[in-house]
Structures are given as C-alpha cells and as structure tokens.
Design goal:
The structure is a homotetramer of 362-residue chains.
Chain A: E1 5-6, E2 11-16, E3 22-28, H1 38-48, E4 65-67, E5 71-72, E6 75-76, E7 81-86, H2 108-115, H3 131-145, E8 150-158, E9 161-162, H4 170-173, H5 183-198, E10 205-212, H6 226-235, E11 240-245, H7 256-259, E12 263-265, E13 271-273, E14 281-282, E15 285-286, E16 291-297, E17 307-310, E18 316-319, H8 330-356
Antiparallel strand pairs in A: 1-2, 2-3, 3-7, 4-7, 5-6, 8-9, 8-10, 10-16, 11-16, 12-13, 14-15, 17-18
C-alpha cells in the first residue's frame, strides 16, 4: 500500500536504492510450470543496461540478474519469484555538495517534504535504476503472455524532431542506439544528441509501444479499464508526463465519423477493423487489434547549466548537476515501456481467465 | 477485483446500468465526524446532470441522490456510505434493431467478446451514466480535502478550436454551457456545436483540471505516484484517450534548462516555484504547487452518418445511431474530471496520514 | 480498506445500519452467464430471517432481497451485482436511555473510542442485521461453486450441552429450530432455551460447517491459505470468539501418528484419505476431502440482568438491555457460517482458475 | 494476490524455499524516520532460530539477517525494506526416496494437486523456514508500535499436558527451552518430549500471545475486525489448526451474565474492565485491555513410525520421514505468533491513523 507494488493477480514489488547494495523485486502470481531461467530475464535487462552507447549514462553496471526463488528444475513453481541485481558501480564519493540541495526537476524537494528524510546518494529510491526491475518483471510477464503476443517499443520523437511514420521500419529499431524505427531520423538524432550532450543539456522524447496478438476481451470496466491501467503503468515510469492510446490527444480534433473504426469481416472470417483510432481498446476492453500506447518523457533534469533553487535549510542557491547522466532519458525508457505493457497484459490475462475461465474469446 | 472500485483507503465501488432500476455507489474509508448531507452531494451531481443545455443529451433525469447509510445526525460515522440515484427516464423501447449490432466506437463488440453476454439497453454498464456516481463520490472526497483544497475544471478545446490561455477567466467557466474559461471561445463553440449537432455529427475535446492548495508530500513512489494515479483516474473516464500532467507531451520538446522549474523563497518564507512545467508533481509526489492535469476525450461515437460494422452473428451491416446523445461528450466530462481529481487526492491524503501521521508537511 | 469488503476476486462490500432505511451489498467479480434471479437469493436469506421461531429475535422483517444491477435476462453479465433489503421494522422509539450507555459485551464502547461518534439505534453498523447481506452474497457464491459443491451447517453445542456426534443426521437439521443434527439434543435445547429466555439470560454456541465436493488445489500459500481465509471469514461473524479446522484444538493433544491422515487409492482410482484430522486442508490447500470448520459464538450480550458499566461521560452506571433479542445468537449464525464458507470457496476457485487456468486438478 | 503478502498498509511479502539460496521479505509501508538496524531484527530472529535446544530441529542455520534497502543512516526512509537470510545448511542429498512420495500430514499432495509441480527439497515453499521472515517483519512492526505496546507469547500446552494458569510467571518464559510460563510444567515437558523424541514421535501444542498497551480503537468493522485479522494471521502459521480470542471456545459455555466484562472507572479516571472474556476486542475493535489470542498447532508430521500413503504415480506406499525435525513444532511457533500479533497491530495502527488522524483515542 506504500506504492512499491504493481498489478493485482500478476503482482510484483520492487525494492532498492541507486547506491545501496542491490536492487530487486518479488514477482507473485506467476502460474506454475512455465519455463524460466536467468538468461530469459537477462536478455531483456541487457537492453536497458546503462553504458551501452555514448547517449546513455556511463555508469558501469553489469546488471546481472539472479533468480533466488520460485523456479525449480527450469520451471516456475507457483511460488513467488525473487530477482536481484547487485549494485557494482555505486561510486563512493563525497555527497557533501548536494546532500542538502534540492535539484530542480528532481524529486529531492518532494521526498524531503514527504518523508522528512532522504537517501540522497544517486537519487536513492527515485533513481531510474529502479526501472531495471520493471524490465526483469516484464520478462517474467512475457512468459505468461506466450509467443502469440509480441510487444515492441520505439522512440518516435526527440525534442521537436519527430520520425516520419511513413518510413517506419521495425527492423531499424534494433540497429541504432535510439530504438528509432526511421533510419534518417536516427541519423539526425545522433548529431542532435551529440550537440546536446556537449552543451551539458538534455532533451525530452516520445515513446510508442505496440502489442500485437493480444486477444479481445482483456480489461475490466469500469475503473480497471485496460487503457486506465496502461496509463498508470506508463505514467509511473520516471520522467513520464503524458500518456495516450491510439489517436490519443489527436482524437479531440476528430469528428465522430472520422474517429469511428469501421468493422468488416476479414478473409479469415474474423472481425477486421479498417482503422485503429481506438488503439485497440473500446470501453476499456481490448478489441484484438494492435494495442498502441505512447508516452512523453521530460528532458533529463541533471544538466550543467546552473539553475536557481533552495536547500533543505531554506537558503537560496544555484545548482549544477554533474555526474553520469543520460542526455535523453527517453532512450532507455523504451525497454521500460515495453516491460510495463507486458506486466499490464499478463495481469489482465490472468484476470480474464479468473472471470471467464478462458484466456481468449472463443 | 473486477474493476468496479477505485482507490485504496478512500475507496468507492459503483454499480448499475443505464436502463436498470438505479445506479449507486458505496464509499468506504470516509473518516468519521465530517458534516455530510444529501444537498452537499446533490450540488455537484447537478453540474453533471443531463438535459441542462441543448449541447448535452436530452435524457430527462432528475438525478436525485439518496444517502442510505454511513451518516448519522448530519455527520459521517466511519461506516460505508451508500449512495443511490433511481433511473427515471429509461425509456422502454424496442431494442430489436441494435441489440445484436456492434456500433463502431462503442463497447458493444468488446463487452460481447469479454463476457459473451451484454445488456444492450442504453449502453448498459458502459454508459456514461455511471459517471454520475463518480461525481457523487467526488463530493464526499471534497469533504475530506476540506476548504483549503479547491478543484476546478475547464474545457479548453473542442475539435481543433483551442481557447486562448491568455484570456483564461475562471469566472467565465460557470457562465457558459461549455465550462469554457475563454468567453470568445465559448461563443465560437456555440456556433460550432449547433452546426455539428445539426449534421448529427460530434467532436472531441480536451479538459483541464486544476487543484490548488494541495499540500506537498502526497503520492507514493514508485507505482502509486500521484501522477500515475491521476492518469489512471482520468483515463478511466468514458471516451478518454490521453492524459498529461503539467507541460505534458510538450515536455518532450523542452530542453532541460527550459523544463526545470526553478525555486526561490517567497515572501511568506516558503518555497516559491518560478514555473510549473511539472504540473505540481516531482518524483510522483506533490510539490505544493497547483496540480494541473489535462485529458482528451474522443468525439461521441453515436452519430447519424452510417458506419460500416458487423453484428453478433458475423454479418456485415451499416449502423446509424439514433437517440439522445451529446454532440460533444467532453462537456459533461468536466465535472467528472474534477471528481476524479478529488477522489485521488482524498485517497492520497489518507495514505500520507497513515504513513507519516500528519496531513501536511510541517 | 475500511473493512467493509470481503474477498479478492469474488469480492463483496456491505453497507447499512440496523435502523437505517436499508441494508445492501455490491458483489463484484461474478463470472458472466450464470443463471441468477431474486428467488435464488431469497431462498437462503429466508433461512436467516428473524422472527421465525420463539428462539430468535421477534423483530419482524420480511427481508425481501432486490437485485438492482448486474443481471440481465436471468443471467449475470459480469457487472457488479447490487443487492438491497429495505428495513421495515426499525421501530422508532426513544433511545434516550441507552444512547450514551456502553452496554457490556457490545461494541458501544469501542465504536465510540474508534470513531468518536456512534449510531446507537439498534446497534447501528455493529448489528447482526448486517449478516443478512453475507447470506445474500453467499447465495451468489453458490452459483459460482455449482452443484458439485454442497455446504451445510449445523449447531453442535449450546452452553455446555453438546450433540452426540454418533447420532448426527443431516436430515434432522432442517426439522428443528436449532439446525441441530441430533434429534435428542434438539429436544433438550428446546427446554434449555425456553428456560434461558424466561430468565432473560442467554447462552453461547458452537457451529460446524462442512463443504463437500470441493476440488483439491484451492488455497494460496503462504498467507492466503484456505484455512487462514476461513478463519478470518468465521471470526468476522458477530460474536465469534474461536475458529478451528478439522481436529482443531484437539490436534494439540494428538501424537504425530494419530494425527496423520493416511492415504490409500480408492475403488474409483482416486486418493482416499482414511481419516480427516486435517479438515480437508494441508499446507493451506484443499485436499479434496470434506472441509470441516467450527466456530464458537459467545452468548448474546443483551440480557435482562443488570450489569455494571459506564456511560459516554465517564459515569458509572448499571445497564439492563431490553428489546427483541435472541437468547442464543448462535442459532442464526448457522446460515451465516454457511455463507462465509461459500464466499471463501468461490473466491479461491476463481483464484485457482487465474493461476492455473483450470478449476480442478486434472 | 497469490498469497505471499500479508497486511494492507503495513504489508510484507515473503519469498524463498527451504533449500534455495536464500529466503527474504520486502516490508512496504514502514513510516519514515524510525530507528532501525540489523541487530534490532536479529534479536527477534535469533529467538526462532533452529538448533538452539535438543527439542528443535538440528538444522544449523546462523540465520543472519541483512537489510538491503529502505534504511539510511540508521533510520527508515519510507522506502521498502528488503530483508534477506542466506540458507547455509541446506544439505545436498539424494531426494530420490521422497521426491515422488506424498508424506501424510505434509503439503506434498496438495502442492502437487494445485501446481502440478513441487520443489520437494526440505518442503520447499511449505517449509516452516518461511516463518523466519515473519519474525523479521514482526521486528520491523514492533518499531512502529513503539515502546508502549509489549507483545509476549508462551506455550501453555503440549499434548494433553496444560500449564497451571495460577502459576503463570512471565519471567519463567525466557528460562526454559519451551517458552513455558509455569516452571513445573516446563520440567514435566522436558521429560515428556525427550521420550517423544526417542520414539521418533511428535506432539501438538497450544500457544498464547498477549499484547499489552494496545490503544482502544484498532480494528475495522465489519470484515477486517481486529480478531478476524488475528485469526487469519495465526491460522496462516504452519501447522495451526485453531485460533481463539479471550474466552474463545469456552465462551460457548458461558451465560450472558458471566460473559459480560463489566466496566468501572479506575483510579486513573479511565475505563476499567473487571474481566477480559472478550480478550480485548469488542465488535472487532480493541478495548484497550490486553489482547489475548491462543492458537493450536498439530504435532509435527515428520515421524519415524511408518504411515500409509500414495505416491505421485498413484501407487500405495509406506512413508517414514527421516531428517532433522522438531518433536513439537509448537515450541518454535511462539516467536512466530508474537510476530504475527505485531504485524497485525502495526497494520491496524496505521489504518486507524489514516481514518481518524490519530494513533490513540483522546
């Protein structure tokens, strides 16, 4: 109830601080007899790992995931699965300069206001390092979803530079350091971010996550609508400021005629939607179309330009944030967004199974 | 767990269908000894009531709220508060035409896919009529928040016609049928919607909800961040397709320098933020600034222009939706958005009290 | 979170006070397409109804259950089911005498201590009248369990007069006003309770509830063990002071050899337990044997003999409780115990379905 | 939702198997700025540690608790507290003999029926080793309760040998290996258990846990009554078969006059109860008197006498359970019962604070 858990039937709880001995999570509600081993999880965690390109933080963490429980002879047992990553590169250093400062855009001020105490080392609990465990939990969730469901994320905007959607190529996503589906945008971003990094500045971004193969029928009206849970999932990611489904904010501009996704019967005898303004969700329930979610993240708050702020004692100060930071945190948010999609879907798949006794519409 | 409840400590559960005998909710977790009577709730419910202008559905519902429990001698007792509104104008009519049809943009298809059964009368459980109970629950939540917290909503865009934020006037909101804070936009919208209604068409909209006087410290990292819970709350509203906090999607465009809300010490000796790109939330915790949330709703799906669809038997059909509908459902979403803001804040106020033993930072 | 809900996937929330306009509940998580109508629920509620014999309260309540939502054309829809019973015989009278008194054994003192306010009319929220809605929810739960699971309760002890278990006859239970399975005990109890009532006194009792046909595999280690949830369920019934499973407290006396329920293969080729000290539960999970739960209820606290107490102002007083009370509340606790068994099993059946995709071991 | 968590506001989740690399828990909802260090937890865990006397299992585990998160500079931060104990003495051995057998009285059969897979090494998840983490979580809970609340447990019965309550001496509890408050009973038990152990047999027991200094007002009617939550807590302990509060099952025997705990005003001007049949709870809410809970545990199921059973393949077999087992698991259940009392009280203290803004009645 203090907010460190996510999900209802598929439910995970994360723990750990940026500069503590380790971070970890406990995943409860995993069905028994699913094949699972450390490399299955490591595969996804590696995609989020820091220090992989010059555009993400240079903190050197191997991010080696260990399974501590809930798996026996290569299969899940139905018992809770504890996962842990030891922190390796939590540099011991003098925090004297910043331990009492409230860095603008960071959670320093609010953690102090809420708790009256704050682990200031590397952002403590508020560090984006926590998202490594989301990715780990997401890897377990993917096992529940099975091979039929595929989840892919892409970066579609950095600063005010958007991709050209006509040039979308999923293969491209794995071949540049931005998860960018548009090759020429990726080229532009490389120049853009080098320049931004050089200035010690940062930029925001927009991420799109698409899930295919999701059966119709997932999502619980009225308050646990699939889109409502996805909105919460994405907005809970560090630095997220906006979430939209399908046409999203653009839906406000559409007329009823243009917004309606018409339906025909496809060649396979199944319903065929002629467009997807709904983003795969109607009335909070999946339609069987692709689920399309986008979220915006603000620019990294740690920048070299001095900003005015105050300290814990009410003194006015100027803050410059040095350290190993990402010029665009949005990049590493891509695998995190994918993971959050996976955990929401796994949860709702189990919920649907409980309510109706079946995984899919028949 | 089937999705009809919202909140954790302040928790309400709604029930009822559009054309059933009544709709209602049970609000649990209300602190004892708060003054509460039916008019306190009726006041807010009346703002959402249908049939109040030519721009909302002409269904005639008095929407008379009854308190059935949890209040004694004018005060809450700590017991659950049951609220009920009897449905009066649920016209009996022949549903033969639509009972097997899947109206595009509606939840007909997905309810059928999920449950294998569907109360097709007036949208059944998926009807926006359910939101009346959100407003009722929100009225109770406001009692918990007290006089220091004020929550106000406004419509800031219909179709592609946005208000001029420089002309924002909160007083204007109560004097036009659109909750529009910009008098000249309200005038334009009147003409626009008359024309849209005449064509049997509809338009989407964007709503902004602002909460002032919220103490710093509300919100639980990591997964129950205040913004994450607000995103879920707003996205759970019928027809919502996008949610953003503060600068929202525009944050993607900003540089770190421009996005940082600098802090000084105000004349009252308290922290003074020089801007509010954060929308009042940092690290998932309220800063004490205004909370600013926006959400987009799609155009009403019930339109007179025929749309292609299928029926329950897999036959291709054309659908025209007659009936009493809003040309822009976004209008009546304004009081609903305010209510959802109130219930999220009341819940987090109680959570903060549990965790720290205090309502406010000291 | 304020305690008026029970269950996780099958979850109901009750509301209402003894002398308010009505009592009710909302049952969420009911699978769609189960046949359900008011008589299905009324059947069970009638068994608990007051005023049916001279051994229960003479309050005259028809206890007519109405279904207000969640059922369409005779079937559940998956939407929340709202049930309501109007209070009819809540006599208006002068509460002057007792409104400030703390009756010994009642919840008067503790409600005042907790909430600082108390609806003193007929016990308010603390009245056993609330249990009518447990029985109603239990009736819905039975629909989920289906015909294969049967749940039966019996009164096995009043005061220190126990039944003879060798004379147990389930048919007898329906033919005496005590739900007593032993005909000669029922005769003795009739004389006993007439005498107790005459003296304005009261007696405690022990209830046994047995569920047959429960599949093996229900119950979630470690904290939501089936026996742990049953213990909570039974202990939450008004006046309950003890709960035991199978051999219960007697298990403390047994040696490991005597306690072990040995297993053979039965004629049907399935596991056959040779005894049932476990009460049908091992490691918190059902074995497929009969589930056997017993709970003790204290004597009715409302008695004619004066007892020393204090009032709200700290004055020492003497209290005599007049009114329409049961000489042995244990009698009407039998259908309530059955209902709580039903709701726990329905919840765990859905949980098992979610986790494993099947209702039963295969 | 899969059952490995306990509590609502103060909520902990345990993980780990008997013979896995480690066991652990995550405690969420701990208020910030409470002093906490590893020795504070180790102190309590040591009381439950195996191998401390000849009457408990000879497994040699140092049970060294590590705090991995949520504590900074000696104080809690409000972030989740992860605790871990590495398993040291999980002997590698040949499980060939028992891996397919269902030991009577153990959870082997039911785990297989539920999950279709089972970690058979040392009982896997069903091992009492899990209770070490309950004790650890209980140590954190005690910090929340503060010095005013004291929780003490005692063993009051082994087999059919009960203590003499007139000889109850709390000091005695710490000076014999049974947590026995009656010196002469402790002497008898020593002889009794030596003989039982020699025979390879086992006995059940009854534990009593008493909490003093608990403020009036804790517990949430109707379903989360304090006694209901305590019943669940105690029944969730391995081998528990019965729970009672105050007079418990004996309340069934009492008349209303004898059961009523009369109230006077004490010399301190506060309410003074003249007896405690209620066990400190009325209407599910604490009265301010001592909370008194008892629970019965069955005899250890691992015994040397052969018992008839079946194996995973449906073959009839005989089982003898060798290994390092407790002749009376009830002994080590004492600190576990204390811990469960602590976690229930801490949770309800936070819940009461949320609802009323105060910890105690004023």
């Amino acid at each position: 109830m203090a907010g460190n858990s996510f999900g209802t039937l598929f439910r995970f709880t994360t723990w750990g601080e940026s500069h503590g001995p380790a971070i970890g999570c406990v995943v409860d509600g995993v069905p028994p007899r699913l094949p699972l081993a450390e490399p299955d999880i490591q595969h996804w965690v590696d995609r989020r790992r820091p220090g992989q390109s010059k555009f993400t933080t240079q903190r050197r963490e191997p991010d080696q995931v260990k399974i501590l429980s809930g798996v026996f002879e290569g299969q899940t047992t139905g018992a809770p699965i504890a996962l842990m990553i030891e922190n390796v590169d939590q540099r011991t250093r003098d925090y004297g300069a910043i331990k009492d400062q409230f860095r603008p855009g960071h959670a320093d001020f609010t953690y102090q206001a809420k708790y009256g105490i704050r682990d200031y080392r590397g952002g403590g609990r508020a560090s984006a390092r926590e998202t490594a465990m989301r990715v780990a939990a997401g890897a377990v969730a993917r096992r529940i979803l099975g091979e039929d469901v595929t989840i892919k994320g892409a970066l579609i905007q950095i600063g005010d530079d958007r991709i050209n959607r006509d040039d979308w190529n999923w293969n491209e996503v794995e071949s540049n350091p931005f998860w960018c589906p548009d090759a020429s945008a990726a080229e532009r971003w490389e120049a853009l971010l080098l320049e931004v990094r050089k200035r010690g500045s940062s930029l925001g971004a927009v991420i799109e996550v698409v899930a295919s193969g999701v059966p119709a029928g997932l999502g619980d009206p009225v308050y646990d609508k699939l889109d409502a849970d996805l909105a919460k999932a994405m907005m809970s990611i560090n630095a997220a400021k906006g979430v939209e489904i399908g046409a999203g904010f653009h839906a406000a501009v559409l007329s009823g005629e243009d917004n309606a996704d018409e339906i025909r019967i496809g060649n396979d005898g199944r319903p065929l939607f002629l467009s997807n303004n709904a983003g795969g969700i109607l009335g909070g329930i999946s339609t069987g179309q692709d689920l399309v979610v986008r979220f915006a993240v603000k620019p990294t708050s740690s920048i070299l330009t001095p900003r005015r702020s105050i300290d814990r004692f009410g003194q006015e100060i100027e803050v410059v944030t040095k350290g190993r930071h990402d010029p665009c945190v949005g990049i590493r948010a891509v695998p995190v967004g994918e993971a959050m999609m996976a955990v929401v879907l796994a949860d709702h798949l189990l919920r649907q199974r409980a309510l109706t006794g079946r995984d899919k519409e028949t």
